[in-house]
Amino acid sequence: MTWTDHILSRRATLVGTTGLAVGALMPDGIASGAPNRSATASPAGPAGPAAASFANPVIWQDFADIDVIRVGSTYYLSASTMHYSPGAPILRSYDLVNWEIAGHSVPVLDFGSKYDLNGGRGYVRGIWASSLAYRPSNRTFYWLGQIDFARTYIYTATAAEGPWTRHATLGTAYYDAGLLVDDDDTMYVSYGNSAISVAQLSADGRTQVRSQQVFTTPSSVGTLEGSRFYKINGNYYIFLTRPANGQYILRSTSGPFGPYTMRQVLLNLPGPIAGGGVPHQGGLVRTQGGAWYYMAFIDAYPGGRMPALAPVTWTSDGWPALQLVNGAWGASYPAPAVPTPPRQVTPMTGVDTFDGTTLKPRWEWNHNPDNGKWSVDNGLTLRTATVTDDLYWARNTLTHRIQGPTSTATVQLDHSAMRDGDRAGLALLRDSSAWIGLKRAGGTTRLVMVDGLTMDGSWNTTGKGTERASVNAPGGGRIWLRATADIRPGSSRTGTFSYSTDGVNFTRLGPTFTMGNDWRFFMGYRFALFNHATQALGGSVRVTRFELSRP
Hints:
- Helix content is 2%, strand content 46%.
- The chain is built from 1 helix and 40 strands.
- Strand 31 and strand 32 form a beta hairpin.
């Protein structure tokens, strides 16, 4: 398939942001096991304390193409990041509800110069749907994903935090792959778009032993992709999505290479985010007590794709059934019955003063950074790394996910070391962007609000920005910049920008910015810190505090 064909297959049936009709539901669902994907299913439903419940989405931040596993008493979740670096974040939880970012499976996107913004750009490429697994025999995590429909890469680590290293490069592109570690330690990969195949890897996980197509999607169903591969009670299951409004499952009682039969899990199911899409894709996981849960994601632009959790039970003949609330994915469910967590997870909101000498895993760069042009030392220093008048070409733009449904980013910035021609500030970044920040020219610094930064459907720049408001920057070099974003699903969600000279009293600058909600960029809006030159390198800014807060 061509790149365009892949893009279109990915969301060709995207459900609109208005009412959704309930489709016929078969008794289906499944799960990923502990410590790997080979597990035992129990017909019993999940239990939880009667007084305890959780609300969906369990994470109101952009984490899509989810894979989820349990290792001992800890749950791990992996997600897509496309052109952001480091890629493939690993989230950690002890209860399936409260999550923290532990690290990234792909430390750098070293897949070609376009990921360095060198002679090309990698927007909407990079890390697509991938898979996370744990191999008990060597106590190692495995991440597997294809890049640019050319090759498959495997990274490994003995801890979710890393360090992660490249383990193997395979010549076959396992599109939308699911990795299974079988009871006998053999590793299998399910993959494909409509034509679903299974590959067996060598014992060291570095080469392919065999590959075979095991299923052809009926034309009446359409496209199936997003594989997740499980072994449960001796049977093999491949969990597949019909983008972006359905979920199906294949089962083989004869081994990993089939034959497989298919059942529908959900179709056009109303989701728990008002105006959002149908929960789909993602994966399944079993708790220590034997209860099963499905972690899907919901298209909810302009914010992105948000994880949602629902319990799953099993029929007596070995098929999973999603538990609904009034015919829909529940806005809330009883909390999973799990042991008391050993500690509280690190919140994905709050203050970062850039203490220490490394970035926290909540941060990801727009493409790979120039590591010689930034540093953390009880504050973040961004030196200009690119001479350009186009933010989409500027290296070392540092991004942070937006917390839904509405949140505010406030940054304290010292701009005294900027040079003529430099641009620095805080953006709402996507294929249609806006920012508040500083422009220096002729020895004078102005505070400006800019919108009209745009890309076309091939991710080429079509607008470099229009200045909508400006004031003279206050003396002293220190300023607070603020952006507030409403990322509830819809076509008219807005962002606003303001500034302060004391960090307490803020003044609006510029008009309201209307965020785009087209799904084709896949990734949702992010807050972004940037500093680039338009004349010559050498300038810098220092960020001493970043706060992500909710109303």
